[in-house]
Amino acid sequence: MNLDPLLYAPLAVKVHLATVVPAFAIGTWQIFLSRKGSVGHRTLGYVYLGLVTVTAIDALFIHSLMPKAPLGLSPVHLLVPFTLFGVVNALLGARNHDTRRHRNAMIGVYVGGMLIAGGLTLLPGRIMHALLFGN
Fold first, then answer.
1. For residue 26, pLDDT beyond 90
2. Cα(37)–Cα(106) distance, integer angstroms
3. pLDDT recorded at residue 5
4. Selection from 16, 3, 8 nearest residue 130 by Cα
């Protein structure tokens, strides 16, 4: 593991990583291990959704994939509105005691925002690939 790619990364990348790592850990706990409906589940859920929201908004400031594209946005940025829509639906589902809506939104955010987007960061040429596997 070589930390140089992260040390020299733009601030937006550092913020993104600082919010997505705990969000991934909390999301994994919430989906697979927590007791649904408990005070701990609800509390960690709010923390998770806050971290995911910051991560998604911060992604708009990361332009390393296609810097010459309009506004520096790439196709992976399409996951930002998907994630924010999922956050809102998860909150509305929980507030209205619509467990199906809440569960589906949370799983969608986790799969789309954590697994798919996270998986894409491991492709060659990306900072996380260089961080974990070297150049």
1. yes
2. 14
3. 85
4. 3
